[in-house]
Design goal:
It is built from eleven helices and two strands, in the order H-E-E-H-H-H-H-H-H-H-H-H-H. By secondary structure, the protein is mainly alpha-helical. The radius of gyration is 28 Å and the shape is globular. It holds the Pfam family MASE1.
């Protein structure tokens, strides 16, 4: 039995490593489908692999590090030939998620995102702060290799940073949600979710492809999704809106028509970032308030039960029967 257990552990680790690497590589190929040209450099508005890496670290721990490293290597090899200079990008794209994981673990991050502090931590520590590493390593490597002029460093760095951060803000909450997902028991919730999905499928394309710049129409839908379904509704709505906006921006359609590459990048990233921030923080606030209300209701119920028991214990005893009382007097 001991021998079988010892054999299972390396096999399980190998399967998990390959699964993480495959998910990272698939997310990377998906992210490369839509690209923007910023100052002569090709960047992705949303880089999903960073979200996959942070989610895997939060779920499986540091034992998923090897799979993340292999995934980064596979993505790089699918784009360019393996060179010594690639090690800088490999190190940056691996170190950034690890840094995000360590900082989130340091502040007591909960993967259910049921508190406002968890949403704030994921935004500022997991996305904005940690992805400075990958953006600096990637854009700095381009400058060192003379593939990018030093005067164009900051626009490319900004686009790289925002793209990596968007991957964490959108993909990581979605994967954490799927990890702990439970089907709603009531049929009415399914009907409501289907109706909301139909509205989203009609409203989001209208907002992202209309030349009238109607992107603001997505926000009421996002708020409604957060109010009714918390993180599940808000993050799926944000994912749909961000994906549609990215497709429209890369094709320069709708509100992104007749804009320069830099204007497209700034407008798209501002919209995607505000959508992700609204989805995360609003759903965290609503979930925290609901959990607080349930705790208060539970405490009130417990208090009522305690008071009922105390009242029952202090009630006067019932008088003894008359026959027994008369017999006692006679004695």
């Amino acid at each position: 039995m001991v021998g079988i257990q010892e054999l299972r552990r390396p096999a399980l680790f190998a399967v998990q490593t390959l699964a993480v690497a495959a998910c990272y590589f698939a997310a990377g190929r998906l992210g490369l489908v839509r690209q923007l040209v910023v100052q002569g450099a090709v960047v992705t508005p949303i880089w999903p692999p960073t979200g996959v890496a942070v989610a895997c670290l939060l779920i499986f721990g540091l034992r998923s590090l090897l799979g993340i490293t292999l995934g980064v290597l596979f993505v790089i090899m699918s784009i360019t030939t393996l060179q010594p200079a690639v090690l800088g990008t490999l190190a940056g794209n691996t170190a950034a998620p690890v840094c995000a994981y360590l900082m989130l673990r340091r502040v007591g991050f909960r993967t259910d995102l049921s508190r406002l502090r968890d949403g704030v931590a994921l935004v500022f520590l997991g996305a904005l702060a940690s992805m400075l590493i990958s953006a600096t390593a990637g854009a700095g490597l381009l400058v060192l290799l003379d593939k990018l002029d030093a005067s164009r460093f900051w626009p490319v760095w900004l686009a790289w940073w925002v793209g990596d951060a968007m991957g964490v803000l959108i993909v990581t909450p979605l994967l954490l949600l799927l990890h702990t997902a439970r089907l709603p028991p009531r049929v009415a919730r399914w009907k409501e979710a289907s109706g909301l999905a139909l509205i989203a499928c009609g409203l989001v394309p209208l907002a992202t492809y209309s030349g009238l710049s109607l992107l603001f129409l997505v926000y009421p839908l996002l708020i409604l999704a957060a109010l009714r379904f918390q993180l599940a509704g808000s993050i799926l709505c944000a994912l749909l809106a961000s994906t549609a906006a990215t497709i429209a921006a890369t094709d320069q359609n709708g509100p992104f028509e007749r804009l320069s590459h830099m204007e497209v990048m700034f407008k798209l990233q501002a919209f995607n970032g505000s959508m992700a921030l609204t989805a995360l923080l609003l759903s965290a606030v609503i979930t925290e308030q609901r959990n607080t209300r349930r705790s208060v209701e539970k405490a009130c119920q417990d208090l009522v039960e305690v008071l009922e028991h105390l009242t029952a214990g202090d009630s006067p005893r019932s008088p003894p029967p008359r026959d027994a009382e008369g017999l006692r007097h006679q004695q």
